[in-house]
Design a protein that fits this description.
This protein is mainly beta and 619 residues long. Helix content is 4%, strand content 57%.
Length: 619
Amino acid sequence: MTLLLWVYTFIGFSPISQDTIPLAEVEVYAPALDKFAQGQKVINWTKKDLEDYQGRSLGDILQEQSPVFVRQYGAGMIASPSFRGTSAGHTAVFWNGLPINSPSLGQSDLSILPISSIDQVSVQFGNAGALFGNEAIGGSVHLGTATEFGKGLEAGITQQIGSFGMFNTSAFGAYSSESFSSTSKIYRQFSKNNFPYKDLGQFGTPEIKEDHAQFEQIGLVQNFAWNLNTDNQLKSAFWWNKTNREVQPVMGSKTTDKQEDQAFRAVIDYFHFEEKSIWNLKTGFVRNEQTFNASENNSTQYFLAGDWDQELSGQWTSKLGARYTLTKGNLSTYQADENRVEWYQSTKFSASEKLSLALNLRQLVYDGTFAPFTPNLGMDWSIWATPSQNFLLKTSLGKGFKVPTLNDRFWNPGGNPDLLPEESLSGEIGLTWNKQGNINWDQSLTYYKMSVDNWIIWLPKGSFWTPENIKKVSNQGLEYQGAVDGTLATWKWKLTTSYTYSRAVTTKGADENDQSVGKQLPYTPQHQANAKISIEQQAISAFVSTFYVGERAVTADNPRLMPSYQLFNMGLGYNKFQLGKVHIPLGFQVNNLFNTDYQVLYLRAMPGRSYQFNLSILL
């Protein structure tokens, strides 16, 4: 029966699940990330939550406000996520429902995804291959642009000036009526990154100033939305982003590499609303162009997708769909095309107000090769509830997969077209407690366990390197996430905290003499924590935040450990300055408040204390 439904609904898929609430005249329909994610952990940041990170990157907020470890190669340099001890290639990244990971590398550089271009961020933890497809083994990140109707004309400009040559500018203009909405954003971010540091690569570790890490980024985001009538809506979005970087050398080196990254992303969504169902057709493309010195590596992905989300009864909800992807790679050492087709089904059963279960299924085929069939079963159970508080038990079990990248299969020399997809099996169980009152509490604790088989590693083979399915990794750990807020006199306050314990070890190595077996994976801290306290009155706001990263091994056999570090940031804001109808919020931030000397990766210098002044002019 399931297979027949898949065939019947071949034209229906979208990577983010959807609500089945009919569209109101002045509302924008937005898919619900966690509708079929029973048992899984999801955190969300709204546009207001992102305000403290304007002028910074997605990697900064993930590192400082979530249990995700971000591997940074320097200020403004490559930043890659590590969810629950997995690699950067085990994280799926979406923008308005489109997967935007590079098909050649299988990952995204978080340092060139600026917060200025994003209105909302959702982060899903753990295995979600059945929900979101390829690469969603450790977790997934979902970026979105927000659209509103009936707001009239709005405009604004924001300027940030800071240490080490920072000079960031962004502007937006928006117009919306009851049936049409348009929003335009432009931005430029620039930093010389000429910070001083102690050069461990030179005798005597002299203090020198970085002279080859300049960063410049410009971009444009354009959104349109039309309420065609009460039953139909059309949305489109375009994002162009270009980054030029001087690649920061390792300590002791004088290399002068340069890198240019340019991305074009576009998506069109058509929604048709019926009484108890929603049809969505989606098409889009993502083009990545990268030039490293004189070497060019380009790729383009075209997507055609659709889904049918329906309420079968008061207890049963289902979503059925499919997606087709055509990838064209034109890289320095090879050219390759790839076709993918994937079928998708999700079913949610609400047994009662307290208990809901979801079954998600997915099958992907790439160039005639079947990826592992991917099921997931999850449950949310409110084990105790009163009008003011609730204890929720969440648990899930599922599989995930990662298809070998274009580089893995076709790089010349060394590519291995016979590679198998990586497979994962994982489970998690968590308890969430919410209490509402004079003080509001939101606390959660999650235990997870995961194994990844056929892990792809590149090994030397004669005069070149080649990838093989050799490694096997086991991951387990604990994640705590907490928030508490309230009011003291005229002040609103909020405290958020998180702690992560992650044990990720190699259980099968390259051969019987592999010294990495039983050792923690490189650059995977066992302990990580962060906290932020913020206060707000009518006109004044302030925050202090901190994050801690424990020791990390430099190599797989763990003979050298990077020391732990803890950084503090603070900020002040005043938002009641007015000139007529013009609103002028002001802000001031200090990052790395105590000027801590630290490295995220070995011999990769990081900046000390820096200052940032923010000025916005809003109409």
